[in-house]
User: Fold these one by one.
Assistant:
Number 1:
Amino acid sequence: MNPTQYPAWKALTAHYKKTRRVQLRKLFAQDPQRGERLTADEAGIFLDYSKNRITDETLHLLQQLANEAGLRAKIDAMFNGEKINITENRSVLHVALRAPRSASIMVDGQNVVPQVHTMLDKMAQLSERVRRGAWTGHTGRRIRNVVNIGIGGSDLGPVMAYEALRYYSQRDLTCRFVSNVDGSDFAEAVLDLDPAETLFIISSKTFTTLETMTNAHTAREWSLAGLGGDPASVAKHFVAVSTNAREVAKFGIDTANMFEFWDWVGGRYSMDSAIGLSTMIAIGPENFRSMLDGFHQMDEHFRSAPFERNLPVLMALLTIWYTDFFDAHTVAILPYEQYLKRFPAYLQQLTMESNGKHVTLDGVRVQCDTSPIYWGEPGTNGQHSFYQLIHQGTRLVPCDFIAFGKPLHPVGRHHDILLANVFAQSEALAFGKTSRQVKADGTSDWLTPHRVFEGNRPSNTIMAERLTPETLGKLIALYEHSVFTQGAIWNIDSFDQWGVELGKVLAQRIVAELESEEAPKLAHDSSTNHLIRRHRMLKEKR
Ligand code: G6Q
């Protein structure tokens, strides 16, 4: 079913026409309680959604849309392990990765929770050994550097989590991340590292991804060269995270040093599986488990809370409201927390790879826009660059502000100044500055229009007490389930990624054409043929 066919969609279209000019200034003036009423405080996360261009009627219709789309049944289907990723015929069970030991989640008649915990225990053993200095390298020296090699879902989560939870990390261990097949990425990552003290984690669900396998082979050569070429050293300096034991063994990593996950975990939903091994080594098993507990608390909230106070559902409905009715093209993610600097990049994959789809589950063109483009930077830095467009440009950019009550580094006045900026920004966006107010400041007539802020620019403010592993887990799960809800309403498959798969295949063919001794017979379009020839010519000049 196309989402535009739901009665609530039609009602929302009419409602949008009626209310699209309504000003937040007016909505707040009419209802002095609005700023307290349109909030939700659940699972330790506070969401203020009052500065959105919505009325009670909008919320009612959006929730009706969720009901008509069968959201409740779709949530249950995911949690029950049904194969909701229909194009890959797979269950979607990242929620099982953070289920407590006592839980039971069935896939093909088997409870998967025990294997999740066996794997967590195995990760914890390795992590403890590395952290204590008990896992020694080939020459007997302790490991001081951990380099995760992976890309996409096998990189973005670990990078983001390492940065986000650095405060909790063991500071005499260094974690680095290599993802790009551009040799500079690897070269810079190991430039100042000693192979005798370096452990590589090769993270790849399939263990066939071109970038990761190229980097992994280069890492093995670098490691062997630094350790006297003894192949026995690989066992001490390489571990693998994968679902593909055969390929791991072929690479030369003992499968005893392989950390497994399963095909019901999508790449972009895998940072809390064994893919999080580097995170666990950095912050320790206890902190990692506390992060999983945060995820689980948000899972339970999402599964059980009524839609009117369900945080992921509310956020998803607002995204649909702006994307499909206001024709907003993007969402800005603006964490006022320096440690979350990679959070927007992480969310880009989670949101856009999941919901960047053009057909419904029935394979017909979807009749509305699907995922908006997510982007963002930490505040206050963004304020001194792109916020100009959000305040005074011609486009509508819904914003998610993220802030924490308590700082991790209570330095002087910094935290109050930081938080003052978050609140000032969302206030200015919502209420703007009228020409009368600008003139009252003594601004001349000709300059007034340039200094007017129209306001009526929507935002959410998400607050939690402090950035901890547990809070991070909750925040990630909040967005995961918001993405799920959006996909459920658009009736698309949020869990496949055929666009990514295509890229993996296409490059392989051209690699051979670039590397062949003889000039290859090219059968691409004239532009691609020309670019290939040009590159071959430049190579020869070197
Ligand atoms: C994630 C995607 C994609 C994937 C990478 C790496 O959902 O499928 O980003 O994670 O392409 O794949 P491997 O882990 O198999 O190397």
Note: The two ends are 57 Å apart (CA to CA).
Number 2:
Amino acid sequence: MQEIVVATGNRDKLREIRELLHDLPVRITSLADYWNPVPSIPEMGNTFSENALQKAMWVFGRKGQWVLADDSGLEVDVLGGMPGVRSARFAGEGNGSEANNRKLLELMAEVAPERRTARFKCVVALVTAAKSYFFAEGGCEGMIAFEPRGARGFGYDPLFVPAGFTQTFAELGPAEKHTISHRGKAFEKVRKHLHEILG
Ligand code: ITT
């Protein structure tokens, strides 16, 4: 069975990727299967695509296996697209999701409901050979809530209300999240591509 290494140290992201690819004939491994401690791969790019490719190539260069990398984040309109590619480190290196969410809520304390528009973006890079790259992207429009709600999901999920819903991603749960999320949409394209190349 074809192995694909997912170049992530984020366990929640890995769980979602496994769920999204569960019916493909591939064996999904991750950084934790090859490194202890799990390395923090440098992300120097200014775009999700650059960072996704950097993470995938970092692993491909060392392991020579098929690699998938997901670079994603939240773009908030009233903050000029921040935190964007800095979503994981918004409240500073080493601070977790709670601190990121607190910072976002503080910055938006005075922002009226109609100006709280935002979107999640996800770019996936699949590297199968030294110069063989495939990119897929997905987005999900929504609004930033006034307080965290829900205990499912990860990251900014308790603050993100997808368009057309009243619940946050953290209240909706994985099945519903996958049908509309940035990652769900990007991985639908990855699944189609993998179907084609795996035959
Ligand atoms: P890897 O680089 O090791 O994959 P990471 O968490 O650093 O893990 P990113 O650099 O792509 O990954 O940063 C993505 C951040 O954006 C992530 O840490 C969350 O804070 C946020 N994010 C991305 N997708 C999300 C989702 O579906 N729900 C909630 N937050 C999300």
Note: The chain is about 35% helix and 25% strand.
